[in-house]
Specification:
alpha/beta, TIM Barrel, eight-stranded parallel barrel, two-stranded antiparallel ribbon, 7 helices, 10 strands, globular
């Protein structure tokens, strides 16, 4: 079964929808420069309001220990997602220090971007593959609405559970799942009207597309 993560949630309405649709993960963006960023107070409020079965992911970009301590004290995060330039040593340090499972994002443009993978497989609980974007196009580390060549990951086996991200939406997620067999898919801009404003209808269409595809296509281990 392909799990589903909606990232960049900023409203109680979107959070309730995620719970009603029995989604698996909700991502709270804690990087202040993101158009989807939450304050500590907002993250605290939404984490309390979240359905119990929905795992809340705090998304950070090159966070300091102080930033993580403040966020984890304010909100109830089930996982930490590191979406910056954190190296394997830093990932291991955060995982050990804060005793919270870690998702490490790797940004992909070519097969060469997978070279650090083995080191991250040793220290992260989950891997997330997102699109590597030219800084001239966007300075955002994720949520750009752009996809990478999924064939780069085709046929590969990983030592950790992994998520596919990067430009997914209801129209293309079926094709992505016909090429790859990720443990989860992660969507943000693909279910928005504009950055930070989730569209409930688009969320429902995305979920339906994933569930139809995973029913129709046998999931290999």
């Amino acid at each position: 079964m392909t799990a589903i993560k909606i990232c960049g949630i900023t409203s109680n309405e979107a959070l309730i929808s995620a719970g009603q649709l029995a989604l698996d993960y909700a991502g709270f963006m804690m990087w202040p420069r993101s158009p989807r960023a939450l304050s500590l107070d907002q993250a605290a409020f939404l984490s309390v309001a979240a359905p119990a079965e929905l795992q809340i992911v705090g998304v950070f970009v090159n966070p300091s220990n102080e930033e993580l301590e403040a966020a984890l004290s304010a909100a109830s995060f089930d996982l930490i997602q590191l979406h910056g330039d954190e190296d394997p040593r830093r990932v291991a340090e955060i995982r050990s220090r804060f005793k919270v499972p870690v998702i490490k994002a790797l940004r992909i443009a070519t097969a060469e971007d997978l070279e650090p993978l083995a080191s991250f497989e040793q220290v992260a609980d989950l891997l997330l593959f997102d699109t590597k974007v030219d800084p001239k196009i966007s300075v955002l580390p994720g949520g750009t609405g752009l996809s990478f060549d999924w064939q780069i990951l085709a046929g590969r086996k990983f030592k950790r559970p992994w998520m596919l991200s990067g430009g997914l939406n209801a129209d293309n997620v079926g094709r992505a799942l016909s090429i790859l067999k990720p443990d989860a898919v992660d969507v943000s801009s693909g279910v928005e009207d504009r950055p930070g404003v989730k569209n409930i209808t688009k969320i429902k269409e995305f979920v339906q597309a994933v569930r139809i595809t995973r029913t129709a296509v046998p999931q290999s281990s």
